[in-house]
TrEMBL record:
Gene3D superfamilies attached to this UniProt entry: 1.25.40.480
Protein name: FANCE protein
PANTHER family attached to this UniProt entry: FANCONI ANEMIA GROUP E PROTEIN (PTHR32094:SF5)
Domain of life: Eukaryota
Pfam families, alphabetized: FA_FANCE (PF11510)
Domain Fanconi Anaemia group E protein C-terminal: 1-194
A GO cellular-component term linked to this record: Fanconi anaemia nuclear complex
């Protein structure tokens, strides 16, 4: 709809107000899919800041409250949004999921699915750097595994940080099968760069 062009002229606070007025954070998921398809067709593209505000308003509450796998509508909306705005999405949502206390099994699984299937290579690197900034925990190991399984070429400094982090954390994960799988994947995918 032509009315959506207003999204390009709103400030962050105006956009937050508009999202609140339209109740986008709680709208039915089929409408969320439709709204995200409209966002993809929007020209010009949303600014980084606007996309970050929309990522937060559309998805943050839904993702953090997951207690079972996301519905196909929510996955379709997430995939659609990520196809064009993966960088702001990662900045907002991945950071929030990483800061959530507790196991967050569904959130972790969702992050793995997005890394494996949706995110652009530069966004995968962003996820990796965000994970490495957080204290390493059992819940984050599958996300690192998903990043490695993408078999993307990683910048040397990011790979060095990953190797250093795993070396430092090895004693804490001495009995972890996930950690052993992660180290094996690292040695397999990046054997030429890891001495």
């Amino acid at each position: 709809p032509p009315e959506l062009s207003i999204l390009n002229s709103c400030s962050s606070s105006q956009l937050e107000g508009l999202c609140s007025f339209l109740q986008l954070s709680t709208c039915p998921e089929p409408f969320l899919v439709l709204f995200c398809s409209w966002l993809l067709a929007l020209t010009p593209d949303l600014s980084y800041t606007s996309a970050a505000v929309l990522a937060e308003q559309l998805f943050l509450r839904r993702v953090l409250s997951l207690t079972q796998p996301p519905s196909r509508h929510l996955m379709a909306a997430l995939t659609s949004f990520c196809s064009k705005y993966s960088h702001p999405f990662c900045r907002v949502l991945v950071a929030a999921v990483l800061q959530e206390p507790g196991e967050g099994a569904e959130q972790t699984k969702l992050m793995c699915d997005l890394v494996e299937e949706c995110l652009e290579p530069h966004s995968v690197q962003l996820v990796l750097s965000q994970v490495l900034e957080a204290p390493l925990s059992e819940k984050l190991l599958p996300v690192l595994q998903a990043v490695l399984e993408r078999q993307e070429v990683l910048p040397p400094e990011l790979l060095d940080l990953l190797v250093l982090t795993l070396c430092q954390q090895a004693p804490a994960f001495a009995t972890s099968l996930s950690f052993a799988k992660l180290v094996t994947a690292l040695l397999t995918v990046h054997q030429g760069q890891v001495s």
